[in-house]
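Box S1 | Example of a co-folding query
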Amino acid sequence: MDILKQMILNKGRVVNEDILKVDSFLNHQVDYHLMKEIGSEFFNYFKKYNITKVFTIESSGIAPAIMTASEFKVPMVILKKQKPNTLDTNFYQTPVKSFTKQSMYNLTLSKDYISENDRILIIDDFLANGEAAKGAIKLIENAGACVAGIGIVIEKSFQPGREILDKAGYVVYSLARINSLKNNKIEFID
Ligand code: 5GP
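Box S1 (continued) | Returned holo structure for guanosine-5'-monophosphate
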């Protein structure tokens, strides 16, 4: 997706050879125009998959996910990183290792917002080791629902997440695929 790649090249910052900072348009300040374009790109790719809900992981997946849900005209569900006090015992939970914080959190989903008939599109900002996506998949499949697809805004293809999801047979569509962040340089896979 050219507009995204240009934004990454112009405004992204290489923190080190493993981490890219995109705070000015995705993770802190959010570019609504780019998010709208991302929503329609995911819609065009996944429209034949009969999506009933869009799921994301708080918090940086929310902006692209709500724009995608808006295109599909289906609800968006935010998987929480800790159980809110307002949630009773009616929830699914699974531990996930955070890529950026190198700590564990409990990904949490109320049973009220998923059913066996759902065909779910997971949207997230980054794909690195695939831990967040695997956690989301586990919650969805524990509920008896179907993971119809996974949409990623920025995939770091040199980390193992993409291969793990491909081998497990999921449909993954990434809008920008980064081959390397070495030498302070952002290199894409075409
Ligand atoms: P994974 O679970 O695939 O290892 O990592 C994905 C999650 O870690 C994403 O939801 C994202 O929040 C965070 N993440 C992974 N790599 C990066 C990165 O290079 N930059 C930023 N800003 N977040 C990242």
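The chain has a mean pLDDT of 96. Residues 19-22, 27, 57, 60, 99-100, 124-133, 161 surround guanosine-5'-monophosphate (CB under 6 Å).
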